[in-house]
């Protein structure tokens, strides 16, 4: 690969060496050098809501989504967009780390949980997902999920894409037929009796299932169980597609990847000359390139200008993504450089979801739609995602697990201050002794 230095040649985290105007190359010296942050964003968006197979769900959700205000935690109910709020929360929690997750997997998991939620617990879940209280909005969410699941079950010659759900339940747990029927009908969920009193065995059973469904990409979704769980709800996604115009492995060479102003690493850099959708966003200060798979699904790569990453992250909205998609136009890119990489992420989402307003599922929850009694609470929400990008294409997977346990009312009374005592006969209820203790140490 010619010219990989900062001074004169191309370098790229997901960098496109094209001019800000057609036909004018942008010097590498002006390219954005906060590589790690750029990879964070391009990875996040490269599989999210871009392919035509996601259009059904997007259309159903479009009218419910509004622009995200800057302060995630102070936005009024129904005014936020879950996908980008979740991204910002994850990025804020780990500002120096890569971010990669599946909004679809997490959304579907919470939608399934909402089937068993009642009253304020259900309202919080739906509001957190950006779904307002309008009549029929919840039904549209479940119907869109059902259509998407059924569509993904259809065989595709040029794409491997599967999405599925499962319930791992304690034997003899009294699950409501309405909930179970909805899980099977709307979310095509399989059900597996699971002995949670054997925590290691239950963990292995769930993780083996997830590993099989994700072709070994997600192997350790559930990190631990303690025997108190009565149900674990699982969603998985597997994706594998080939580039319509593949990179030639012969042209992949080691090149500099500029993590920051004072840190550079060597990575295998792929290169390609092609015509592909391109857009230069002067308003937000970023360059966009879309790479298409043989299935006509696509990955969108966004490269912010130097110093623009945080501004761009703050302004991410569904409207921004729609504007980008509508603005892409075919352009000849003479030199596209893209790193060949693998990335994995694992998240515990309890705190993040609480920040986004979904709190009651973890305490004082009303999940009575699952068992008929309000004694279930979510103990943990975990998510894992993995992605491989190479010369041939993209392979990715994600899984979300929601663990539930029965609440145990722990009543603690500390008799550590002056108290009264009365000794009462059972049969006559006569008080035969009565007293007050102010200092138990005195005779």
Quick summary of this structure?
With 443 residues, the chain is α+β, with helices and mostly antiparallel strands.
Describe this entry's structure for a reader.
Residues 84-440 form the Serpin domain. Belongs to the serpin family. Homodimer. It comes from Bos indicus x Bos taurus (Hybrid cattle). With 443 residues, this protein is an alpha+beta fold. It has a domain at 64-242 and 342-406: Antithrombin, subunit I, domain 2 (Antithrombin, Chain I, domain 2). It contains 12 helices and 13 strands. The chain has a 6-stranded mixed beta sheet with strand order 2-1-3-11-10-9, sandwiched between helices. Helix 4 (103-115) packs antiparallel against helix 5. The longest helix is centred in the N-terminal third of the chain and has 16 residues, at 137-152.
Main sheet strand line-up: 2-1-3-11-10-9
Q: Beta-sheet strand percentage?
A: 25-35%
The structural class is: alpha+beta
State the CATH architecture of the domain at 64-242 and 342-406.
Answer: 2-Layer Sandwich
CATH class of the domain at 64-242 and 342-406: Alpha Beta
CATH fold annotation of the domain at 64-242 and 342-406: Antithrombin, Chain I, domain 2
What is the general shape?
elongated
Q: Provide the gyration radius in Å.
A: 26 Å
C-alpha end-to-end distance: 91 Å
């Amino acid at each position: 690969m010619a010219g990989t230095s900062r001074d004169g040649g191309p370098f790229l985290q997901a960098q496109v060496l094209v001019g800000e105007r057609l036909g004018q190359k942008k010097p590498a010296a002006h390219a954005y050098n906060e590589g790690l942050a750029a990879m964070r964003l391009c990875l996040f968006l490269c599989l999210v809501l871009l392919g035509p197979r996601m259009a059904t769900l997007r259309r159903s959700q479009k009218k419910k989504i509004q622009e995200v205000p800057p302060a995630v935690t102070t936005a009024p109910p129904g005014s936020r967009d879950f996908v980008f709020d979740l991204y910002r929360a994850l990025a804020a929690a780990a500002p120096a780390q890569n971010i990669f997750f599946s909004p679809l997997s997490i959304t579907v998991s919470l939608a399934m949980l909402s089937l068993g939620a009642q009253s304020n617990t259900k309202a919080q879940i739906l509001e957190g997902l950006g779904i307002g209280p309008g009549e029929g909005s919840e039904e549209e969410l479940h119907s869109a999920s059902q259509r998407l699941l059924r569509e993904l079950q259809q065989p595709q010659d040029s794409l491997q894409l599967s999405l599925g759900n499962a319930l791992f339940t304690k034997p003899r747990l009294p699950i409501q037929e309405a909930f179970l029927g909805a899980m099977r009908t709307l979310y095509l969920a399989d059900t597996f009796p699971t002995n949670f009193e054997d925590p290691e065995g239950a963990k292995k059973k769930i993780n083996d299932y997830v590993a099989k469904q994700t072709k070994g990409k997600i192997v350790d979704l559930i990190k631990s169980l303690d025997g108190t769980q009565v149900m674990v709800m699982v969603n998985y996604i597997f994706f594998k597609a080939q580039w319509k115009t593949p990179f030639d492995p012969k042209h992949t060479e080691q090149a500099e990847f500029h993590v920051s102003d004072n840190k550079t690493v060597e990575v295998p850099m792929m290169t390609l000359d092609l015509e592909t959708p391109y857009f230069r966003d002067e308003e937000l200060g970023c360059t966009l390139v879309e790479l298409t798979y043989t299935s006509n699904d696509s990955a969108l790569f966004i490269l912010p200008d130097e110093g623009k990453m945080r501004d761009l992250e703050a302004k991410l909205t569904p409207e921004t993504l729609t504007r980008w998609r509508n603005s892409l136009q075919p352009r000849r890119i003479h030199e596209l450089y893209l790193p060949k990489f693998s990335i994995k992420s694992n998240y515990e989402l309890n705190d993040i979801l609480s920040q986004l307003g979904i709190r009651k599922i973890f305490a004082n929850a009303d999940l009575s739609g699952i068992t008929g009694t309000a004694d279930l609470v979510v103990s943990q929400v975990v998510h894992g995602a993995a992605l491989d990008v190479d010369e041939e294409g993209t392979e990715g997977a994600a899984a979300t697990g929601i663990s539930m346990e029965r609440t145990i009312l722990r009543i603690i009374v500390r008799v550590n201050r002056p108290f009264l005592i009365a000794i009462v006969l059972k049969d006559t209820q006569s008080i035969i002794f009565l007293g007050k203790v102010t200092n138990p140490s005195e005779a």
